[in-house]
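We close this part of the discussion by returning to an individual protein. The sequence in question and its structure tokens are set out directly beneath this paragraph:
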Amino acid sequence: MRSLIAALSLFTTPLSAAELVLFEFDGCLWCEEWKKDVGTYYHDTAEGKAAPVRVVDLFDKRPEHLRNIRPVRATPTFVLVENGRELGRITGYSNPKSFWVDFGKMLSETAN
């Protein structure tokens, strides 16, 4: 828990370029589940305020600032990006608890 708090403290200072990119495609059932389960309130969380979610279609041309991240091959894939640099990623979604545990681990690894 301390590492999660420490990692979140990184987000207390505004990171204008930080975002959580959700790669999806039309018809992705697990993407829709995440949007229903977590996406409805993510923007109200500390994480959501520090790293707003951006949805990108897996099959569309990537925005310029996302062209240097590793390839995405499955959906949903969540990539934490700051200034065009990939800080971490989560591939897949099963339930809210697992998402937040994985997100906490990603933040902890980012803080180290």
Summary: The CA atoms of residues 36 and 81 lie 23 Å apart.
